[in-house]
Amino acid sequence: MTATVPPGSSTTSRPPSAPASSTEAEPLAPAPSAGRFPARERLLSLDVFRGMTVAGMLLVNNPGSWGAIYPPLGHAPWHGWTPTDLIFPFFLFIVGITTHLSLEARRARGDDEGAIVRQIVKRGLLIILFGLLLAAFPFFPLTRITGMRFPGVLQRIGVAYLCGGLLTLRSSLKSQVLLVAVLLFGYWFAMTLIPVPGRGIGALLLDDPSASLAAYIDRAVFGSHVWRSAKTWDPEGLLSTVPAIGTVILGVITGRWLASGKPLQERLVGMFAVGSLCMVAGLMWHWSFPINKSLWTSSYVLFTAGMGAVALATCTWVIDVLGLTWWTRPFTWFGTNPMIAFVGSGMMARLIYSVITVPHDGEQAPIQRVIYETFYAPWLAPRNASLLFAVTFVLLWAGILGALHRKRIFFKV
Question: What is the pTM of this model?
Answer without folding.
Answer: 0.88
